[in-house]
Amino acid sequence: MSARRMVFNLTALTSASLGGWYFNKFFEQRRCSNEENNGIYASSTAGIRSMPGLPLFGTVSAAVPLTPVEGNPEMGSKMSSTATRVSQIMKFGFPGLDHVRSYEDFVLSYDRRNKVAHWVFEHLTKERLQYNNEVDRAKCEFKSDESIHPFFRSENTDYKGSGYDRGHLAAAGNHKVEQKHIEQTFFLSNMAPQVGVGFNRDSWNRLEKHVRKLTNVYKDVYVCTGPLYLPKKEADGKKYVRYEVIGANHVAVPTHFYKVIVGETSDGKLEMEAFVMPNAPIDDNTPLTNFQVPPESIERAAGLLFFDKISRNKLNKVNGKNIGWF
Question: Measured between alpha carbons, how far is 79 from 67 in angstroms, rounded to an integer?
Fold first, then answer.
């Protein structure tokens, strides 16, 4: 290759690299400006955005991509309705913004290390829970979530022979409006290893049914569900956080699970319930109220703030009691 041609190639490569750098820089500044205007970044992260090489915080991505079709007049309305639904589900705020992914009818924050969601958020109404003969749970299949990088997702083989159920976080029974909605609850990103008999198939199922029944009391029910990894004092008197991992992908087995629920009455009153259940067999005669806990105890254990857009003194009841925030 001649020296002249080498110089030409080097110049072209440098120009392309610089062009790409300037484009990315402009795009990133534009994105950050938009997110700042939308209130995505907290003031505590204001100094982070200008520092190169750090991971992005507060990103929200659609797990089910919308693929534009040229000349399709319905595309704009589809994107608009999806954004509206996410806004409706998350009316009272995100408990965290770590790898947040929006599905058709629920929103999820995924823990890439443990291969189990940090939390899953749902919005329920009596109308959205009505029986639909066109929706068939039997047609649903457990499947890996290909919107998650292969390094970080769980597979059906991880659960095989583990002794644990693939336990729903967003309950399948909560999403009956469309077949696609219920099918998406079977993504493994919405699953966590749960003890089957005595828990997932029994007491946890009772709690899910309780949440659905709340739509008979409230016009809107917002529910956040997730795992906990709680410490336990052992023989040496020290406390340890110990949990099993299963499969080749080391999917974490939570020690406990939580649900934090807010019901909104027709006159705008807000009431909260909070539950923590051990991931273990539970006597089915045990009242669900035995598992009610102060909401802030879950926040401390999970490292999350729930329903942060609700002023705590606006809550009318917490766990059925007419008391203010703790």
Answer: 10
User: Do 169 and 186 contact (CB within 8 A), yes or no?
Assistant: no
Establish if 165 belongs to a structural domain: yes
Catalytic (active-site) positions: 168
Tell me which range, 64-73, 79-88, 276-285, is most confidently predicted by mean pLDDT: 276-285
> 53-68: per-residue pLDDT in tens?
433 334 455 565 555 5
Contacts of 21 (CB under 8 A, 6+ apart): none
Q: 281-284 long-range CB contacts below 8 Å, 24 or more apart?
A: 281/195, 281/197, 281/198, 281/199, 282/198, 282/199, 282/202, 282/203, 283/198, 284/198, 284/202, 284/203, 284/206
Place of tokens 């008391």: 323
2 lies in which domain range?
1-56
Burial of 318 (0-12, 13-18, 19+ CB in 10 A): buried
- Give me 31's structure tokens: 């994105």
- 214-216-221-225 Cα dihedral, nearest 10 degrees: 30
Question: Do 110 and 142 have their domain in common?
Answer: yes
The token duo for 107 is 């929103």
Number of domains composing the chain = 2
State both tokens at 113. 């290390």
Instruction: Return d(Cα 122, Cα 223) in angstroms, integer.
Output: 5
pLDDT digits (tens, 9 = 90+) for 205-249: 999 999 999 999 999 999 999 999 999 999 999 999 999 999 999
3-state secondary structure of 182: helix
Asked if residue 217 is part of any domain, the answer here is: yes
Total number of residues shown for the chain: 326
Number of helices (H), then strands (E), in the chain: 6, 14
Is residue 105 domain-resident? yes
314 domain-assigned? yes
Task: Specify the pTM.
Answer: 0.74
Same domain, 95 and 194: yes
